[in-house]
Design brief:
The chain has about 325 residues and is mainly α. It folds into 2 domains: about 220 residues, HUPs (Rossmann fold); about 80 residues, Orthogonal Bundle (Tyrosyl-Transfer RNA Synthetase). It contains 14 helices and 5 strands. It is elongated.
């Protein structure tokens, strides 16, 4: 049997996950764990790049994220789940890679430029924020990963990781680090409640494991076709965030019926939302129940993460020994 390829991915520790996270990454993680040797980590150090002045919530957010991961189906029997800051070797490789990474590579990073203008109220003129793609590269190549599952918006980060890995291998005349491939994933378009991108900062999210009555209330207030101001006016389902959710949570026959009913005014927005509410609640119910069970046994959850931290640490210790030998910090064996 051929050895399974290894992939790595992570998420910043921002707390409970919303439906954009579920369909944009987490469902993909659950599938990948059965196809690859997977390492998934909570990126709490990455959270500090923007929240360094207010870090109080990061630890609680970390456990909230872990609970949602496990509730949705990440299985420690099939993947390694760990917390970034618990594996200190990430920081050592980050330091060493920062010595060889040209400054212009970081300054031309499109995400760095965009977030400098989009994130208000935070001083992002720090080395940590500028250099976080190097930490991201260290996160990936320290596991000698073959691939990284990403959406198209993350391709520049993976390409920078590839360049850093190539530069290290060339400078120190080694083939230590595989050049990781970007595993492009199709991310469904799932708008927030107000039609904008779903984001915690916008307050327009539905969370994976929140209460049924909260979900129902949020869907009842969702934006629909703004031109359909009366029940008997035909609408355009494609401009309604509600219909975007139907495509993910309703059966194909029901989606077709909803679309036709909207265009012909046979179905009103209230009925459309009620049907969506029923489908969303039914789909998310197992996740809510699993999370409640996990919350009642946090000793088990912490044990899962401790085991994952240790497994990740063993991999990193072995890699860093080879890194030090390649650089010449220790004698070559």
């Amino acid at each position: 049997m051929a050895e399974r390829k290894r992939i790595l991915s992570g998420m910043r520790s921002t707390g409970r996950l919303h439906l954009g996270n579920l369909h944009g990454a987490l469902e993909n993680f659950v599938q990948l764990q059965h196809q690859y040797e997977c390492f998934f980590f909570v990126a709490d150090w990455h959270a500090l790049t923007t929240d360094y002045a207010t870090p109080q919530a990061i630890r609680a957010n970390t456990w909230d994220m872990v609970l949602d991961w496990l509730a949705v189906g990440l299985d420690p029997e099939h993947c390694t789940i760990f917390i970034q800051s618990e594996v200190k070797e990430h920081a050592e490789l980050f330091l060493l890679l920062s010595m060889i990474t040209p400054l212009p590579w970081l300054e031309r990073n499109p995400t760095y430029k965009e977030q400098q203008t989009q994130i208000d109220g935070k001083d992002l003129a720090t080395y940590g924020f500028l250099g976080y793609p190097v930490l991201q590269a260290a996160d990936i190549i320290i596991y000698r990963a073959n691939g990284v599952p990403v959406g198209k918006d993350q391709l520049p980060h993976v390409e920078l990781t590839r360049e850093i890995a190539r530069r290290f291998n060339f400078m120190y005349q080694t083939e230590l680090f595989p050049i990781p491939d970007a595993l492009l994933t199709e991310v469904p378009v799932l708008p927030g409640l107000d039609g904008r991108k779903m984001s915690k900062s916008y307050g327009n999210c539905i969370y994976i494991t929140e209460a049924e009555d909260v979900i129902a209330d949020k869907i009842s207030k969702m934006m629909t076709d703004p031109a359909r101001i009366k029940r008997d006016i035909p609408g355009n389902p494609e401009v309604s965030p509600v219909f975007a959710y139907h495509k993910l949570y309703s059966s194909p026959p029901e989606v077709a019926e909803i679309a036709e009913g909207c265009r012909t005014a046979k179905i009103g927005c209230v009925e459309c939302k009620k049907r969506l509410t029923k489908n969303v609640i039914a789909r998310l119910a197992p996740y809510r129940q699993k999370r409640l069970e996990l919350e009642a046994d946090m000793k088990k959850v912490r044990g899962i993460i401790e085991e994952g931290n240790e497994r990740a640490r063993r991999e990193c210790i072995a890699t860093m020994e080879l890194v030090r030998q390649a650089i010449g910090i220790v004698d070559r064996k």
